[in-house]
C-alpha cells in the first residue's frame, strides 16, 4: 500500500506538472483575455504606452518579469516625467495662430484686448518694502535687483469672443525715457504655468515668462493661453504677475518717466522714477572670457588677461586666509573692505607671475594665451589693448596717505598694442582720432605665419621665442589655434611695453613728488587722458583733474615697481564661422597658461592652463533658409571679404550635380540631359521690430531632390563655368580637374538638409586708364582741336581685352567718333601688370536736335537698344533689347483728335505720312535731326512704338484684332503733347504715360513704357514653392477677359468670346512661378476699367486637393505707384451656366501688390482598420500626435515616453474608424502636411487584442504617405498596402497574428513548453535513479 501510495504521489507530481504547463499554455495563448476585458471600458487618449506594456507584462512568467525589472524601472522613470503639466512646461513651442474652419474664431495676438491696471517696481530691504513707483518712493540704486509686478485684465468688450488655446500677448518690460542713459534688464525666466483644478485633475490655463526681444537691451513679458482655458468658457480675466530679479542698468542720475503696458485707451502707463548715480564697482582682478557683439556669421569674443596686476598696483594684495578664497565675494583681494589695514603704496606691490607649463623648447614662459577655433572658423580680427582703471574713493586726504582707494571695473585709459583687422598689424597715423589708438609704427605685436609642413609644436616654439608675437596655426582638420605671446611679466627684465610709450608724447611736462616715496614723478600723457575721460564720465569733477593725473602717474607710470610696463590687457577676437554654421548658441574656450597673483597665491595654486569659456548667440542669415532632409543648399563665396569683413556671395557660377556610384562619380541627368544649376539669390524671412521682412541671400543653389525625382545617394556639386572674373584653379576647392563641393548624403541624417560651401578667387587685377577727349570748336578734327575732358581709372584682370566705352554723360552733347579715336588715340588693348594701358577716345560736338525723346522703362531706367559702342544689347536669355518707333507727320485737316478710336496712322493713312523708323540709342533716346526748322517744329507728329523690350507691354496698334491705336502726339513749337488712349466702348482702359520738359527731369521729353510685373506662384501651407517635375506637376490654365465695355464676374471662364484662353497647362518652375499677368487696365470705380484674368488649376501634387473652381484676378495700372497691381482676388465655382462665389482654397497678395501666391489643401490621409481575415472593423479608436514646434520637434527622441520626446502629447487628434457600410473601417486624418506623426491605437473592439507599440507615419513633400514604421517592443502589427490603400489588422484574443509584433508571444509559448519538458525529464531522471 505504501508503495502504491508513493507511486501515486510520483504520478501525481507528473500530473501536476502537466496541469501547470496546460494552464500556462492557456494563459499564454489568450494573453489578452483580461486586457481585452479592460478595453471594453473607455481608454483615455492620454493613456501612456508604458501602461499598456505593463498590463501585458503582468501576464508574463515571474522569471521574465524579474529579468525585465530594470527595463520596467527605466520605463516607469520616463513615464513619471510625462504628465500634462510637465509636458506643457517643457515644450518651448512658439505661439501660433490656430486656424479653425468655416467661421469659427481664430486664436492669435489679443494684445488689443489687454489692459494693464497698474504696475510697480520694488524690493525688500531689511524686511521693509521699498517701492520706486508708489509713495513714499525710494530712489533706484544702480546695478541693483528689484521685483517687477503688474495687474492686468482681458476686457470682454474688446475681445468679443471666448479665450482660446493659442491666444497670446506680448508686453515690453518697463522702458526709460532716455534710452541712452541705460535700461532695465531681466535675465529672462522659464515658463510658469497657471492651472485650474478639474474632476480630471489640474488643467493648464496659461503660461508666462520673460524672453528676449529682437531689439537690443529689450525683453518682453509673454503670456500664452493653453488647452485648459477651453474648459472655462470665459471672455475676461483679472490677474497679477510678479517677476523678481529686474536689474537697474540706468547710469544717468535724475528723474525719468518709465513706461509699461497700456491703459484702456491704448496709452502707455508712465511713472516717474528717480535714479541714483551709477557707482563704480571694484575690479576683482580675474581673467575671464565673454561673448560680445555678434553679427552675421561673426562673434566678437573678449578676454581679460592678468587683471589682477592692476589691482595690486592700486595698493591691494592677495590673502586667501583672510579673504576667504574661492566662493568668497572678494576672491583673495581685500578690495573695498573699509576696515582693512593692508594699503600698499600705489605702484609698489606686484607679484612676479609665470607659466609653469606650455613652453615649447624649454626655458621660462611668460604671458601666453591660446584660443582654439573649430574647423572652418577664421580669425577675422584680433586686438589687444593695455588698460588701466578709474579709481574708487580718490580724495585729497587719502592721496597723501595712499589708502582707501582701489581700482574699479571701468577702464580709464586703453591703447592697442595690436590692431589686426584681418590683414596683419595696423598702426596709427597722425590723423587718428579713435578713442583707443592703434600702436605706433614699429611697436606692438608682430605677426608670424605658418610655414609649409611646420608642426604645431614648432610654430608654437617660434611664437614663444620673442615677446609680443602672435600667429594662427591651422591643422589639416581645419581646426585653428590663435597663439599670443607677451613675454616676461616679472618685475625684473619685464618685457611689456611701457604705458608712457603708447601715447604720441610720453609726458605732459608737469612733475610732482610722490608723497610716500618722495620720488620725483613725471606726469604722463596717458594719465592726462585717463583723467580727462574720468571727468567726462562724471565720476570726478574738473577740480580733481590734477589729483587724477597724479594718481594715474604714480600707480601706473614709469616710477612704479615695474617701471611703467603694461600689466593688464583686454583681448578681443572676432571669429568668423563657416556659412553653413546654424544660428544659435556658440561656445569658445581660451587657455591662459600664465598665473596671475590670484591663481599663484591660492593655498593650492590653480592648475594651468586656466580654461575660460564664453557663450554667445550666432546669427546666420543662410540658416534662415528652410531645408528639409531631401533638399541641399550650395553656397558660393569669394575667398576675399567685403569692407565689413562679411562674405561676398557670387552669382552666375554654373554647376552640375554628380552622384556617386561605387567609387565613380557620374553626372545627374534628366531626360538624358545633364542638369545644370546657376548660383543666384534666394528669399528668406527675418523678424525685424516684430515685422516679418523678406530678404535675399545671394550666391546660392537650392536643390529639391524629391521634386526632381532623384534617388537617395551620395552627391556633390561640380563647377563647370566660373562667374566672370574668377579663377577656378586658385579656388581652395580645386581638385586638379574642377572646383567641387564636399560630398553629402540625401536624405540627410538630420531633419535639415545638407549645406556645402564652395569658394572662388578673383583673377589678378591691375589698373588701366581711359581718357576722353572732346572737340573744342566745330569744324576741324585735327588732334590739337581736342581737349582732355574726363579721365577714368579702372581695374581689369591681367590679360583681359579692354574695348573703350564712350561715356554716356558725354553723349548728351557730343558724338563719339570711332574713326578719330583710332586715328588720334587707342580704342582697345590688354590689361598689363604694370598698369600702363591707356585707352583714348575722341568726341565731336553734336548738333542740337530738337526732336529728341527719351524712352523710360521700369523704375525710371532708360531703355537703350545699343551700348555706347553701338553694339546691340541682349538680356540674360539672349533676346534682343530693342525699342523701335515709327514717326508720322500729320497731314490731315485741322489737328489730330484724341477721340474716338480709328483716327490713327493705320486707321486713316490719308491723314498721316510716315517719315522715319528710329531705334533708341545708347542713352535710350530717339532723335530725328531732320525735324529742326520752325515750319517743321510747328507740325504734329505721331510717335508709334512698334517694338519694345522682352516682357514689356507694346502699345496696341494691331488693326487685325481691334481698331485700337495707342500712340503719342507732339508739336515741338509750343511743347504740345498728348497720348492717344485705348478705349473700349467708352471706357478708357489704357493710356501711355509721358513727361514734358521740366526742371525736374532735365528738360527732356520722356516716353514711358509699362512692364507687366504681376507674378503668379504656387506654394504649400508653409509658403514653400511647389515646383513641377517629371514625377509631379502643378499646372494652370490662364484666361483673360476681352469683352469690351462691361465686365460680368459671373460669366464662367470657358465662355467665349468674353474670355480668351492665353495659356494651357503652364507649369510651375523651381520657385513655384508659372506666369506673369497685367497688361492694361486703369484703377477706377468700375470693374470694366480693369484687366481681369481667370486662373484655373488643372493638376497638382498627388497628395493635394485640386482646386474645384477658379480664381478671378483684378489687375490694372496704378498711376500713383507707376506699376501694374492686383486690386482684388475672388474665387468662383461653376454652377449651372454661371460662376458663383465660393471659399478659396487659399491665396495671398504680396505687400507691394505685384505677386499672387495660390495655395491648396492637402488631401486627407486615411487607412482602413480590418481583422485578421481582412474584414473591416468600425469603432476602433486612434490618437495621432504631431511633433513639438521648433528644435524640440526636430531633434527630440521618437520614443513618446522619453523625457526629450519630439511628440507633443498634450494635443492628440482623436479618430474612430468608420462604422458606416459605405466606408467601414476607414480612419481619416485631415491636413497632415509634410513631416512625421505618431499614431497610437487607444481602444479596440471587445474580443480583439489592443496592439502594443505605435506607428510613425511620414508624409512626404507631395502630401502622400512616404513610410509607416512600427516602433516599440514588441512591435505592433504591420500595415499592408493594396492598390494604393493602407490596411491595419487587429486580431482576436485567441488568434495569433500572422505578422507584426507578436513573435514575442510565440517565443514565450516555446519557452514554457521547453520549461515543462525540462521538469518532466527531471522527474523521470529521478525515477530511474
Write up this protein.
This protein is mainly beta and 1329 residues long. It folds into 7 domains: 31-82 and 1163-1293, Immunoglobulin-like; 111-275, Sandwich (Immunoglobulin-like), CATH 2.60.40; 288-616, no CATH class; 621-762, Immunoglobulins (Immunoglobulin-like); 765-844, Ubiquitin-like (UB roll) (Roll); 852-1007, no CATH class; 1014-1158, Immunoglobulin-like. Helix content is 13%, strand content 36%. It is built from 18 helices and 74 strands. It has a 6-stranded mixed β-sheet, with helices on one face. Strands 26, 27, 33, 34, 36 and 38 form a 6-stranded mixed β-sheet that branches. A 6-stranded antiparallel β-sheet has the order 58-57-60-61-62-63, with no helix packed on it. β11 (254-260) and β12 (269-275) form a beta hairpin. The relative contact order is 0.07. The model is unreliable at 1-10, 23-104, 1296-1308 and 1325-1329 (pLDDT under 50).
Question: What's the arrangement of secondary structure elements?
Answer:
Elements: H1 2-29, H2 33-38, H3 49-57, H4 62-67, H5 69-80, H6 84-90, E1 114-125, E2 128-131, E3 145-154, H7 156-159, E4 168-172, E5 175-176, E6 184-185, E7 192-198, E8 201-212, E9 219-225, E10 237-248, E11 254-260, E12 269-275, E13 288-295, E14 298-305, H8 307-313, H9 320-323, E15 367-373, E16 378-392, H10 396-401, E17 406-420, E18 446-448, H11 456-463, E19 469-474, E20 480-487, E21 507-513, E22 520-524, H12 525-536, H13 545-556, E23 569-576, E24 584-592, H14 597-600, E25 610-618, E26 631-641, E27 647-649, E28 654-661, E29 664-667, E30 669-670, E31 673-674, E32 676-678, E33 680-688, E34 691-704, E35 713-721, E36 726-727, E37 744-746, E38 755-762, E39 765-775, E40 786-797, E41 801-803, E42 814-817, H15 818-824, E43 828-830, E44 838-845, E45 852-856, E46 884-890, E47 912-919, E48 925-927, H16 934-937, E49 941-947, E50 967-971, E51 976-980, E52 982-984, E53 987-990, E54 994-995, E55 1005-1008, E56 1014-1018, E57 1035-1041, E58 1059-1067, E59 1073-1077, E60 1091-1099, E61 1110-1118, E62 1123-1135, E63 1138-1141, E64 1147-1149, ...
Parallel strand pairs: 18-19, 26-38, 39-44, 45-55, 56-65, 66-74
Antiparallel strand pairs: 1-2, 1-3, 3-10, 4-9, 5-11, 6-10, 7-8, 8-9, 11-12, 13-14, 14-23, 15-20, 15-24, 16-17, 16-23, 19-20, 21-22, 24-25, 26-27, 26-34, 28-29, 28-32, 28-35, 30-31, 33-34, 35-37, 36-38, 39-40, 41-43, 42-44, 45-48, 46-47, 46-49, 49-50, 50-51, 52-53, 54-55, 56-59, 57-58, 57-60, ...
Helix pairs in contact: 1-18, 12-13
Amino acid at each position: 500500500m505504501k508503495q502504491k501510495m508513493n507511486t501515486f504521489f510520483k504520478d501525481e507530481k507528473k500530473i501536476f506538472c502537466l496541469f501547470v504547463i496546460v494552464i500556462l499554455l492557456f494563459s499564454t495563448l489568450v494573453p489578452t483575455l483580461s486586457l481585452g476585458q479592460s478595453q471594453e471600458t473607455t481608454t483615455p487618449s492620454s493613456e501612456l504606452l508604458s501602461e499598456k506594456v505593463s498590463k501585458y507584462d503582468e501576464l508574463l512568467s515571474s522569471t521574465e518579469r524579474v529579468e525585465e525589472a530594470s527595463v520596467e524601472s527605466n520605463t516607469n522613470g520616463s513615464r513619471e516625467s510625462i504628465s500634462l503639466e510637465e509636458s506643457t512646461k517643457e515644450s518651448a513651442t512658439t505661439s501660433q495662430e490656430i486656424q479653425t474652419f468655416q467661421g469659427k474664431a481664430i486664436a492669435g495676438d489679443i494684445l488689443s484686448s489687454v489692459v494693464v491696471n497698474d504696475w510697480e517696481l520694488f524690493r525688500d530691504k531689511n524686511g521693509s518694502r521699498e517701492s520706486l513707483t508708489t509713495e513714499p518712493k525710494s530712489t533706484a540704486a544702480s546695478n541693483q535687483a528689484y521685483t517687477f509686478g503688474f495687474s492686468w485684465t482681458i476686457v470682454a468688450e474688446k475681445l468679443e469672443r471666448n479665450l482660446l488655446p493659442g491666444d497670446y500677448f506680448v508686453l515690453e518690460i518697463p522702458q526709460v525715457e532716455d534710452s541712452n542713459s541705460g535700461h532695465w534688464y531681466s535675465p529672462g525666466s522659464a515658463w510658469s504655468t497657471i492651472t485650474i483644478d478639474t474632476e480630471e485633475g489640474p488643467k493648464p490655463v496659461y503660461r508666462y515668462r520673460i524672453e528676449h526681444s529682437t531689439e537690443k537691451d529689450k525683453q518682453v513679458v509673454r503670456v500664452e493661453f493653453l488647452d485648459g482655458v477651453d474648459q472655462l468658457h470665459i471672455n475676461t480675466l483679472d490677474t497679477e504677475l510678479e517677476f523678481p530679479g529686474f536689474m537697474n542698468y540706468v547710469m544717468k542720475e535724475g528723474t525719468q518717466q518709465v513706461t509699461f503696458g497700456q491703459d484702456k485707451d491704448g496709452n502707455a502707463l508712465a511713472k516717474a522714477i528717480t535714479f541714483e548715480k551709477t557707482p563704480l564697482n571694484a575690479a576683482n582682478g580675474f581673467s575671464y572670457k565673454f561673448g560680445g557683439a555678434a553679427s552675421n556669421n561673426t562673434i566678437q569674443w573678449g578676454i581679460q588677461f592678468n587683471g589682477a596686476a592692476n589691482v595690486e598696483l592700486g595698493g591691494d594684495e592677495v590673502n586667501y586666509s583672510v579673504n576667504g578664497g574661492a566662493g568668497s565675494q572678494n576672491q583673495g583681494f581685500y578690495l573695498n573692505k573699509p576696515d582693512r589695514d593692508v594699503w600698499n603704496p600705489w605702484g609698489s606691490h606686484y607679484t612676479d607671475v609665470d607659466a609653469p607649463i606650455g613652453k615649447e623648447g624649454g626655458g621660462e614662459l611668460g604671458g601666453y594665451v591660446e584660443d582654439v577655433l573649430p574647423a572652418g572658423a577664421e580669425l577675422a580680427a584680433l586686438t589687444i589693448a593695455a588698460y588701466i582703471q578709474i579709481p574708487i574713493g580718490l580724495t585729497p586726504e587719502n592721496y597723501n596717505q595712499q589708502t582707501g582707494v582701489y581700482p574699479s571695473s571701468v577702464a580709464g585709459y586703453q591703447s592697442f598694442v595690436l590692431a589686426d583687422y584681418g590683414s596683419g598689424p595696423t598702426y596709427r597715423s597722425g590723423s587718428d582720432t579713435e578713442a583707443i589708438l592703434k600702436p605706433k609704427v614699429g611697436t606692438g605685436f608682430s605677426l608670424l605665419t605658418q610655414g609649409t609642413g611646420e608642426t604645431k609644436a614648432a610654430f608654437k616654439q617660434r611664437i614663444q621665442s620673442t615677446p609680443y608675437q602672435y600667429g594662427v596655426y591651422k591643422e589639416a582638420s581645419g581646426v585653428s589655434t590663435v597663439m599670443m605671446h607677451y613675454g616676461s611679466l616679472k618685475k625684473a627684465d619685464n618685457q611689456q611695453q611701457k604705458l608712457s610709450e603708447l601715447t604720441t608724447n610720453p609726458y605732459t611736462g608737469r612733475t610732482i613728488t610722490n608723497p610716500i616715496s618722495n620720488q620725483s614723478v613725471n606726469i604722463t600723457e596717458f594719465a592726462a587722458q585717463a583723467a580727462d575721460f574720468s571727468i567726462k564720465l562724471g565720476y570726478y569733477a574738473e577740480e580733481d583733474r590734477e589729483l587724477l593725473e597724479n594718481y594715474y602717474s604714480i600707480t601706473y607710470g614709469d616710477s612704479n615697481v615695474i617701471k611703467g610696463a603694461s600689466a593688464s590687457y583686454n583681448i578681443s577676437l572676432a571669429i568668423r564661422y563657416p556659412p553653413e554654421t546654424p544660428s544659435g548658441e556658440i561656445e569658445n574656450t581660451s587657455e591662459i597658461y600664465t598665473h596671475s597673483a590670484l591663481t599663484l597665491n591660492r593655498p593650492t595654486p590653480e592648475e594651468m592652463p586656466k580654461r575660460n569659456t564664453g557663450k554667445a548667440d550666432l546669427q546666420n542669415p543662410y540658416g534662415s533658409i528652410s531645408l528639409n532632409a531631401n533638399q541641399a543648399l550650395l553656397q558660393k563665396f569669394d575667398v576675399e571679404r567685403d569692407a565689413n569683413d562679411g562674405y561676398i556671395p557670387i552669382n552666375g557660377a554654373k554647376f552640375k550635380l554628380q552622384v556617386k556610384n561605387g567609387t565613380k562619380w557620374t553626372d545627374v541627368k534628366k531626360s538624358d540631359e545633364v542638369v545644370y544649376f546657376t548660383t543666384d539669390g534666394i528669399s528668406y524671412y527675418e523678424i525685424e521690430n516684430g515685422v516679418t521682412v523678406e530678404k535675399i541671400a545671394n550666391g546660392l543653389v537650392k536643390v529639391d531632390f524629391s521634386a526632381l525625382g532623384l534617388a537617395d545617394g551620395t552627391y556633390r556639386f561640380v563647377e563647370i563655368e566660373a562667374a566672370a572674373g574668377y579663377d577656378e584653379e586658385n579656388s581652395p576647392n580645386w581638385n586638379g580637374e574642377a572646383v567641387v563641393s564636399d560630398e553629402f548624403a540625401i536624405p540627410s541624417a538630420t531633419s535639415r538638409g545638407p549645406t556645402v560651401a564652395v569658394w572662388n578667387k578673383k583673377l589678378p587685377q591691375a589698373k588701366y586708364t581711359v581718357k576722353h577727349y572732346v572737340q573744342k570748336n566745330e569744324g576741324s578734327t585735327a588732334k590739337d582741336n581736342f581737349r582732355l575732358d574726363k579721365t577714368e581709372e579702372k581695374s581689369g584682370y591681367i590679360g583681359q581685352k579692354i574695348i573703350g566705352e564712350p561715356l554716356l554723360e558725354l553723349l548728351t552733347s557730343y558724338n563719339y567718333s570711332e574713326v578719330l579715336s583710332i586715328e588720334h588715340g587707342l580704342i582697345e588693348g590688354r590689361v598689363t601688370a604694370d598698369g600702363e594701358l591707356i585707352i583714348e577716345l575722341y568726341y565731336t560736338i553734336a548738333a542740337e536736335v530738337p526732336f529728341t525723346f527719351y524712352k523710360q522703362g521700369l523704375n525710371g531706367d532708360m531703355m537703350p537698344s545699343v551700348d555706347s559702342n553701338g553694339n546691340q544689347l541682349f538680356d540674360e536669355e539672349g533676346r534682343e533689347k530693342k525699342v523701335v518707333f515709327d514717326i508720322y507727320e500729320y497731314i490731315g485737316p485741322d489737328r489730330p483728335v484724341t477721340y474716338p478710336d480709328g483716327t490713327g496712322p493705320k486707321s486713316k493713312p490719308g491723314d498721316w505720312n510716315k517719315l522715319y523708323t528710329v531705334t533708341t540709342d545708347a542713352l535710350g533716346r530717339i532723335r530725328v535731326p531732320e525735324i529742326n526748322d520752325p515750319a517743321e517744329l510747328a507740325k504734329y507728329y505721331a510717335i508709334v512704338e512698334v517694338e519694345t523690350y522682352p516682357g514689356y507691354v507694346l502699345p496696341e496698334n494691331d488693326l487685325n484684332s481691334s481698331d485700337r491705336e495707342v500712340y503719342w502726339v507732339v508739336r515741338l513749337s509750343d511743347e504740345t503733347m498728348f497720348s492717344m488712349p485705348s478705349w473700349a466702348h467708352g471706357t478708357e482702359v489704357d493710356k501711355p504715360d509721358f513727361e514734358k520738359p521740366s526742371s525736374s527731369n532735365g528738360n527732356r521729353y520722356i516716353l514711358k513704357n509699362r512692364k507687366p510685373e504681376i507674378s503668379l506662384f504656387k506654394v504649400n501651407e508653409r509658403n514653400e514653392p511647389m515646383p513641377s517635375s517629371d514625377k509631379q506637376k502643378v499646372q494652370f490654365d490662364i484666361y483673360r477677359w476681352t469683352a469690351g465695355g462691361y465686365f460680368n464676374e459671373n460669366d464662367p471662364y470657358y465662355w467665349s468670346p468674353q474670355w480668351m484662353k492665353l495659356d494651357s497647362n503652364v507649369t510651375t518652375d523651381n520657385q513655384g512661378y508659372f506666369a506673369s499677368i497685367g497688361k492694361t487696365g486703369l484703377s477706377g470705380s468700375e470693374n470694366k476699367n480693369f484687366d481681369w484674368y481667370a486662373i484655373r488649376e488643372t493638376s497638382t501634387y498627388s497628395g493635394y486637393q485640386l482646386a474645384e473652381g477658379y480664381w478671378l484676378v483684378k489687375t490694372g495700372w496704378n498711376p500713383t505707384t507707376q506699376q501694374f497691381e492686383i486690386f482684388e482676388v475672388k474665387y468662383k465655382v461653376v454652377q449651372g451656366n454661371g460662376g458663383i462665389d465660393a471659399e478659396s482654397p487659399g491665396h495671398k497678395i504680396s505687400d507691394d501688390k505685384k505677386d499672387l501666391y495660390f495655395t491648396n489643401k492637402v488631401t486627407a490621409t486615411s487607412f482602413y482598420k480590418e481583422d485578421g481575415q481582412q474584414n473591416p472593423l468600425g469603432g476602433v479608436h486612434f490618437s495621432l500626435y504631431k511633433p513639438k514646434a521648433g528644435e524640440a520637434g526636430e531633434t527630440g527622441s521618437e520614443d513618446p515616453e522619453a523625457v526629450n520626446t519630439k511628440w507633443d502629447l498634450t494635443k492628440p487628434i482623436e479618430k474612430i474608424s468608420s462604422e458606416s457600410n459605405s466606408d467601414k473601417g476607414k480612419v481619416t486624418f485631415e491636413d497632415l502636411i509634410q513631416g512625421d506623426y505618431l499614431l497610437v491605437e487607444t481602444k479596440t473592439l471587445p474580443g480583439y487584442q489592443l496592439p502594443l507599440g505605435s506607428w510613425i507615419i511620414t508624409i512626404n513633400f507631395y502630401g502622400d504617405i512616404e513610410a509607416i514604421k512600427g516602433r516599440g517592443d514588441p512591435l505592433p502589427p504591420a500595415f499592408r498596402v493594396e492598390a494604393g490603400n493602407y490596411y491595419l489588422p487587429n486580431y482576436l484574443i485567441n488568434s495569433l497574428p500572422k505578422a507584426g509584433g507578436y513573435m514575442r508571444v510565440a517565443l514565450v509559448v516555446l519557452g514554457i513548453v521547453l520549461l515543462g519538458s525540462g521538469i518532466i525529464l527531471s522527474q523521470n531522471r529521478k525515477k530511474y535513479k
